[in-house]
């Protein structure tokens, strides 16, 4: 374990072994703990940093890389499923000795947050869902179609070429992201604000396939109606706030939706001050 004390902010980074996995965990700050679930699938916790770091002045921030992602290590030949991620999170909660989690789930992380709450409602205090996708595979499909509709023809052609090269090992994933990233933000310059993160293509592909086939919480969330839920959606998100009414709010009528103006899918990157304000106010 690495522990650093800088004035009033405490930071630690360490691994938790969960079955055959080594899960990388990072804790920053002091106070009520807030746990962050990164997107992807296949992304990593550094997506949130340094954008959310100022929250550590009032809260303890807990970040971790999901199985096989970022600095976390999965055994050779490991499979990746939604329920494995749910159980890994539950084991981590126990290891961290937190009775009830306050969770911020971003993009795919918002889906994981709902899956976890549906399975372990007694272990959740509050949820913030940002860059939300929905309660079923339908939202995942809408996201993909909307993104494809946004792409310029020249970028579609370039992505097709890069994807073919990537399959042959002749291109890197970051070349594909360089084409896609500007479509995730409202302001073009914001695409450069994201940290240089690693994405596990194998996790993305395997989890994406399972989401399309099995992710469906529609009509199954009435038992989490006691959990306060805040949804933070960029007005220019790939899934619009209006589309969320059918894809998410229909199954979570008690949830509160706040629209972040002049913001795309990367809410925590593009509008961190507004997002931190809402998170702080909600969890306090």
TrEMBL record:
The Swiss-Prot or TrEMBL record annotates one GO molecular function as: aminopeptidase activity
GO terms in the biological process aspect are: proteolysis
Q: Does the keyword Hydrolase apply?
A: yes
Q: What keywords were assigned to this record?
A: Hydrolase
Signal sequence annotation: none
What are the transmembrane regions? none
Q: Name one Pfam family in it.
A: Abhydrolase_1
Q: Which residues form the AB hydrolase-1 domain?
A: 32-272
CC terms in the record's Gene Ontology section:
membrane
Q: Does the keyword Hydrolase apply?
A: yes
Give the family from UniProt.
Belongs to the peptidase S33 family.
UniProt protein name: Proline iminopeptidase
């Amino acid at each position: 374990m690495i522990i650093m004390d800088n004035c009033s902010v405490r930071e630690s980074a360490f691994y938790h072994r969960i079955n055959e996995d080594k899960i990388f965990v990072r804790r920053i700050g002091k106070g009520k703990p807030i746990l962050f679930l990164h997107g992807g699938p296949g992304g990593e916790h550094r997506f949130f940093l340094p954008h959310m770091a100022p929250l550590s002045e009032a809260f303890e921030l807990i970040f971790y890389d999901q199985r096989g992602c970022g600095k976390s290590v999965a055994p050779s030949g490991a499979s990746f499923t939604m329920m494995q991620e749910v159980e890994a999170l539950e084991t981590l909660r126990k290891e961290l000795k937190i009775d009830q989690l306050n969770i911020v789930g971003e993009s795919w992380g918002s889906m994981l947050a709902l899956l976890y709450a549906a399975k372990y409602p007694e272990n959740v205090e509050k949820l913030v869902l940002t860059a939300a996708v929905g309660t079923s595979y339908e939202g995942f499909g809408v996201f993909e179609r909307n993104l494809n509709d946004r792409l310029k023809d020249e970028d579609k052609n370039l992505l097709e070429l890069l994807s073919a090269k990537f399959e042959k090992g002749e291109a890197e994933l970051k070349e594909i992201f360089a084409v896609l990233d500007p479509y995730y933000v409202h302001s073009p310059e914001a695409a450069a604000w994201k940290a240089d993160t690693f994405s596990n293509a194998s996790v993305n592909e395997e989890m994406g396939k399972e989401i399309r086939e099995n992710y469906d919480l529609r009509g199954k969330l009435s038992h989490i109606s006691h959990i306060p839920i805040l949804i933070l959606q960029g007005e220019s998100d790939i899934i619009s706030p209006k589309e969320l009414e059918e894809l998410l709010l229909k199954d979570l009528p008690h949830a509160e939706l706040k629209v972040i103006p002049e913001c795309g899918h990367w809410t925590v990157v593009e509008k961190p001050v507004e997002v931190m304000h809402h998170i702080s106010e909600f969890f306090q």
